[in-house]
Fold this sequence. Notes:
Layout: E1 2-11, E2 14-23, E3 27-31, H1 38-46, E4 53-58, E5 61-65, E6 70-71, E7 79-82, H2 94-104, H3 109-122, H4 138-150, E8 156-160, H5 168-184, E9 188-193, H6 196-202, E10 205-210, E11 213-218, H7 220-225, H8 230-236, E12 239-246, E13 249-252, E14 257-259, E15 266-272, E16 278-280, E17 291-302, E18 305-311, E19 316-320, H9 322-328, E20 335-339, E21 345-349
Parallel strand pairs: 3-9, 3-10, 7-8, 8-9
Antiparallel strand pairs: 1-2, 1-4, 4-5, 5-6, 10-11, 12-13, 12-15, 13-14, 15-21, 16-20, 17-18, 17-20, 18-19
Helix pairs in contact: 2-3, 2-4, 3-4, 4-5
Amino acid sequence: MTLHAQVRTRLGSLHLDCDLSVESDVTVAVLGPNGAGKTTLLRIVAGLIPVDEGRVEVDGTVFEDTATRTWLTPEARRVGFVFQNHGLFPHLSVLDNVAFGLRARGVDRATAHARANEWLERVDLTRHVASRPSALSGGESQRAALARVLVTDPEILLLDEPLAAVDATGRLELRRALRRHLATFKGVRLVVTHDPLEAASLAERVVVLEDGRITQEGRFTDVSSRPRSAWIARMAGLNLLRGVVSDGSILVDDGSRLTVATAIEGPVLATIQPRAVALYRQAPDGSPRNVLRCTVAGVDPEGDRWRIRLEGPFPLVAEVTPAAAAELRLAEGGEVFAVVKATEIDVYSV
Length: 350
C-alpha cells in the first residue's frame, strides 16, 4: 500500500507545495519547525482541508483530485487521525470513546464494546474502562485516542505530535508503546513532530518540511549527518556552511575561505562538529590553516559540555568542557580565536 500526495495550497501566510510518497512498510516522520505545514499536510490527507491544486491517492483509490474534481469525504477515506490534543469526548467513558468510531459506522453496541475492550487491553487501559477522560494522564489519554483510531481498522494512520501533551515522566513509556503499535500496524504510518528524538525513535524514514516545502528526506542518521538546510543543521547540532570548493579550499558564501581536505570541486555544503572547534585566547602558535578571529556571542551551559556561540567571518558554535570555559574565561563579548582542522570539515556536493 502506498500513499501519494501531490498538494499545492495556500492558507494565510503558509504556501504548502510538496510531493510525498509513503510506503506501508515503513513509519515516516514529517519533521520540521512550527508553522512549516506539517499538520496541514496531515489534515489534507485526512480530508479535513481541501487543496487548491493536487491529487491524493492510496493504491488506486483517489481521495482527491482537483483536475477531475474528485473528492472523498473524510468518513470514506479509512484514515485514522490521532490529534495532538487527543480529542476524547469528556462526557463519555473511555470504553465509549474507543467504541465511538465503530458505533458511528453502524456497528451494534455489544460488538463495538467487545472490540473496544480488546484494544483497551492491548494499550493497557482495562482498569479505566468506566473512567472519564479527565481521570487519565496525558500518556493514558494518548493511548486511548490511539485505540479509538485503531479499532476501526484504518488503512492510513496519522499521528499529530503524539508526545506533545505528555509530561516528561510518561514520555519514554508512551514512546515505547507507540513504537510497538506502529510496528504492528500494516497500513501507511505518518507521524508529525518537531522533535528530532521522537522522529529518530519512532520512524524509519524522515521527511523534513520547512516553509511548506520538503527540504530533505531519508533515514534520520543520513539526514542529520548531511544536513541541507540551516534548520536541519541546528537540529543536528552542527555548523553548516555553503560555498564553492576549488584547489583544496572552500570559498564560503560570505567571502571567507577555509582549507579543506576533499577532492570535491564546485558548489558544496560543509559541516563542522562543534567539538571540532578549538578555542584560544591568543592567536595559536605554529601555522594552523583555519584560524578565525571571533567574538563570543553567548555561552550556553549544557551538562558536561558548554556550547559557545561565536560571531566572526561566519556564525559558528563551539563546544568545550566547563573546565575549559573557565580556563579561557569565556564570556559574552570576549575575543577568541577559533581553529578548525581541514580534516574536521565534512564536505559534500549540493
